[in-house]
Amino acid sequence: MTSGSNPPTHFGSKTTVYVVACWIFAAMGGLMFGYDIGISGGVTSMDDFLIKFFPAVYQKKLHAKENNYCKYDDQYLQLFTSSLYLAALVASFGASKACSLWGRRPTIIMASAFFMVGAAISALATHKWMLIVGRILFGIGVGFGNESVPLFLSEIAPVHRRGAVNILFQLLITIGILIASLVNYGTSTMHPHGWRVSLGLAGVPAIFLFFGCMFLTETPTSLMERGKETEGREALRKIRGVADVEAEYEQIKMACEIAREVKHPFQKLMKSSSMPPLIIAILMQVFQQFTGINAIMFYAPVLFQTVGFKSDASLLSAVITGTVNVGSTFVSIFSVDRLGRRKLLLQACVQMIICQLAIGGILLVNLKATGTLDRGLAALVVVLVCLFVMSFAWSWGPLGWLIPSETFPLETRTAGFAFAVSSNMFFTFVIAQAFLSMLCNLRAYIFFFFSAWILVMGLFVVFLLPETKGVPIDVMNERVWKKHPVWKKFMDEGPSNIEMI
User: How many CB atoms lie within 10 A of CB 462?
Assistant: First the structure.
């Protein structure tokens, strides 16, 4: 292909049983992460758990009439949830190195191993420090899994299905949240050790991931990046299901040759030409968390108790939101490669801001420091939460992982995605650590706080987020960044070697 012409958008491929199995087994990393997100809020609302580890919170809960919004406000209780994300933040940089040195597949295996050990320690905990150690091990597993799985899926997927395949990760996150909600609903009546069952079962998806990885092939990009070109070509043939893969092989090979020239990818990330994907990757994580979604998913049982549901009813309400979360993610799978990324994100901003403002308005007018909402208004809050979760599940949830995984060039891909993962974990930590205190101090105004962020997110999409639908992953610089009215100012001039293949 001569200079100035474009490489093909679609390379030859068939969807085989083997490659679908690879997608599903790798996406089990999302199941681990989702189960942990869903299990935390339910466990922290269980009386048996609070009596054993947080008796002061339990006493405050018994006197909830003193202040409806503040009965769960305890920094140590929040640390139980949020410590995982600090560990994941640090671990993501180690995972980046592991992905580059050993490959995506071994990194996924390590993620599952850390998670299994964390589940065992958490289930057997007799002291608060054991809980925190378990959470840290969970966090290392999440850091390794969230770094490696989206990269694996984006690199193994054919370009015309890359969005849908990558969103399998988010789909399994939502399924994990739903399973956790069902488990919490069941174990809430298993006194006094129901919480142990909830935490211990976190090891089950890790076991599936660990043994499932034994059947996965490494990504062709990872193999060729490490000099294993023959194995890379064979892996490409295996996952594409066709014999003629030369055009795609040559594109990956050229990307790998360019990547080998970069000895210090983290330094390369700091250069002007690396700023567009890096800024986008980090801002996607900031905005994903400041939609308020994890405040709702972490603490859905607590939130529903605050507006007047009984303990069992609040857990059941969390099951309902989890079901909506799973179903709505399928919308993204079937539409992201047709409609594109930007349309889904913008539509969701409108729906989310309406829901947040409505929830905030209802609570501001009707829920005081004492008392509860009447049954009709409480049910309306649940409906609005479901509508909010619905829009997030087909937009900012999956696309927050998809877009950073597909926009970095190979030479900075694992390093850049490590910044995305660590940013996600940091801001998840901030929300997890601060939400209950914010709820206590801001009360209903917390929903207006998140609404303001959603407005900023919409402006970000309109002016700064390019469309990446249908663009091969190794030619993003030429097709996306150098043509964007804002980001092209950051890019080096001249065609890339890949574009001249």
Answer: 12
* Cα 221 from Cα 250, distance rounded (Å): 11
Please write the tens of the pLDDT for every residue from 4-40. Answer: 444 445 677 888 899 899 999 999 999 999 998 878 8
Side chain identity at residue 261, one-letter code: E
Residue with tokens 């992905």: 99
Handedness of CA 357, 362, 365, 367 (dihedral sign): negative
Residues 6 or more apart whose CB falls under 8 angstroms from that of 411 comprise 255, 258, 259, 261, 262, 265, 268
Quick one: CA dihedral 176, 182, 185, 190, positive or negative? negative
In the chain, what is the greatest distance between 2 CA atoms, to the nearest angstrom?
75
Side-chain-side CA neighbours of 315 within 13 Å: the count stands at: 20
CA dihedral 201, 82, 461, 485 (to 10 degrees): -110
Distance in angstroms (rounded) separating the CA atoms of residues 53 and 155: 44
Residue 339, classed as helix, strand or coil, is helix
The ranges assigned to domains in the chain are 17-500
Task: Supply φ then ψ for residue 384, to 5 degrees.
Answer: -65, -40
Using CA atoms, how far residue 385 sits from 93, 292, 299, in Å, is 34, 11, 12
Contacts of 343 (CB under 8 A, 6+ apart): none
Reported CATH class of domain 17-500: mainly alpha
Amino acid identity of residue 491, one-letter, is M
What are the structure tokens assigned to 126, written together? 């007799």
Asked if 312 contacts 187 with a C-beta cutoff of 8 angstroms, the reply is no
Contact assessment for residue 252 and residue 218, using Cβ atoms and an 8 Å cutoff: no
Bond from prior residue into 466 cis (ω within 30 degrees of 0): no
Q: Taking Cα atoms as reference points, which of 25, 6, 18, 42 lies closest to residue 322?
A: 42
Percent of the chain with pLDDT over 90: 47
SS3 259: helix
Instruction: For residue 136, give the nearest of 481, 403, 144 by alpha carbon.
Output: 144
- C-alpha 374/C-alpha 310 separation (Å) is 13
How many whole angstroms separate alpha carbon 484 and alpha carbon 402? 19
Contact 143, 97 (CB under 8 A): no
pLDDT of 54 > 90? The answer is no
Do residues 185 and 344 lie in contact, with contact meaning Cβ atoms separated by under 8 Å? Answer: no
C-alpha–C-alpha distance, residues 289 and 306, integer Å? 22
- pLDDT at position 402: 92
pLDDT of residue 220: 93
pLDDT of residue 110: 96
